[in-house]
Amino acid sequence: MTIAILGGTGPQGKGLAKRFAAAGVDVVLGSRDGAKAAELASELNAALPANSGSISGADTASAVAAASEFVILSVPWAAHNSTLEQLKTLLSDKILIDIVVPLAEGNPKAVAMPPEGSATEAAQALLGDEIAVVGALHNVSAVTLNKVEQAINCDVLVCGNQLDAKEKVIALIKQIGVEAYNAGLAESARCIEAITPILIRINMSKAVPFSHAGIRIWAPQH
Asked: Are 124 and 100 in contact (CB under 8 A)?
C-alpha cells in the first residue's frame, strides 16, 4: 500500500510520513515543488528504522497518482480549496483524508469556518458526493507526530458521509498505534476541527505545566 500526503513537506505532513513509514506503509510526499519533496524524502528515509516503508517525494499530481487509495490533505487552509480544484479529476478512485483546520488568519487560537461549516464539508462540496472525503487527524500536534520514538498521546475522531470509507481510514490510522473513533457524518467536523484552536490555546497557556496535549476518549471506570 502507498499513501500520498499532500503538503507533506510541512510539519504535520512530515510527522505523518515518518509515522506511517515506521509502520511499514510506503509514503509519497506531494508538494508544489517536487524536487523539494524528493530531497526531504531522502532525509527522512535515512533516519527510518529497519523494515520501514519507503518515503518518496513528487509533485502534487504525481503523488496523488501514486497513491493506492488514500490521499491525505495537509496543506494550509489558504491553499485547501485551490489544491482540491486542481486535483479533482485525479481523486475519482481515491479516499481523501482531510486533516486541515480553518484557523483564523493571524490567530491560531480561533477558527474561521467556511460557509459549508468546516474544511471537511467544504472538501466534500467541492469534490462532489462521488468522491469519499473523510475528516481525521485534526487534533494531533505536529510536534507529537514528529517524535516517532514516543507513542502518540491522543485518540482520533473520524467523520464523513461514507461509512465504508470511514472504516478504512480508521483501520489505516490504527496502524500508527492510535485509537480512532467514528464520530459521525461530515457535519461533525464542525465540532472536531474547532477543538484544535482550543487545544492550541491550552497548550500555549502559562497556567498549565504541559504543551502539545491532545484529546482522549475514556471508558467509565466501572
From this structure: no
